[in-house]
Amino acid sequence: MATADPVVGRAAAAAYPEVGSGDGGESGGGGGEGGEGGDGSVAAVNLEAGSGDGDRSSGGEGGGSESGGGLGRRRYWNSRLSTERQRLVDHVFKNSDVVCDVFSGVGPIAISAARKVFNMDARRFISSIYSSQHVHPVTQVVMNLPNDAAEFLDVFRGISWNHHLAVPSCVMPNIHVYGFSKAEDPEYDFHERINLTLGENVSDVEMHRVRLVAPGKWMLCASFTLPVSVAFAKPNYIAC
Ligand SMILES: C[S@@+](CC[C@H](N)C(=O)[O-])C[C@H]1O[C@@H](n2cnc3c(N)ncnc32)[C@H](O)[C@@H]1O
């Protein structure tokens, strides 16, 4: 478990996994106060609050819950996703990666991988982290808000517009975006949503079926490298 700068954001996080992959965080380790809900499927930790404003309700994927108001209180997460989180932390992220977990919730992914965590709204975070990319280019972006994350992808359109002189040396991040699909061909359906939001036909998208959340409804993880043409496209929104 991360002990240095144990600051967690329920909104967004950036991680420097070279510090270690932690213990997966599902058993309420490091922060103490592990606990279980009635169905035994949740665990809780006390976390030192960073900055940020307002509270956010738990995201769309079923089963998980977060309780309490502000950070530093008892918070919960869905342990049914622990295998998926471990897949990212143990098999996808490399030690040299800088990971941006934009829907971090209480931070089970970020904490497993991190030593440095921020707390901001997802859109503002992506914009700001990219404006300071000279120091630590982001190499992995996790977007686990299955109901809506694909619709946030437009934030990447033109994200590097201001750095157009650096195109040849620019590192494009691998994006891992989660989504649900009830379609007959869920991979095709989710890929179409991604293309639509990015305004580009993205090739080489690796689809991973995370789990069947209801009969005929898959939770998927789509992984792809952000196309240079998207990152350097003329932005269609003003970054805050
Ligand atoms: C499905 S949970 C995923 C949490 C965590 N990454 C995990 O793997 O368990 C999505 C989280 O994103 C947060 N969220 C929703 N909208 C957000 C936004 N606009 N910016 C940042 N976080 C947001 C929700 O409060 C929720 O905690």
TrEMBL record:
Cited InterPro entries: MeTrfase_TRM5/TYW2, SAM-dependent_MTases_sf
Descriptive protein name: SAM-dependent methyltransferase TRM5/TYW2-type domain-containing protein
Source organism (scientific name): Oryza sativa subsp. indica
Cellular component, GO, one term: cytoplasm
Region of interest called Disordered, as start-end residue ranges on this chain: 1-74
Ranges in a coiled coil: none
Taxonomic placement: Eukaryota, Viridiplantae, Streptophyta, Embryophyta, Tracheophyta
Gly residues compositional bias, start-end: 21-40, 59-71
Cross-referenced PROSITE patterns: SAM_MT_TRM5_TYW2
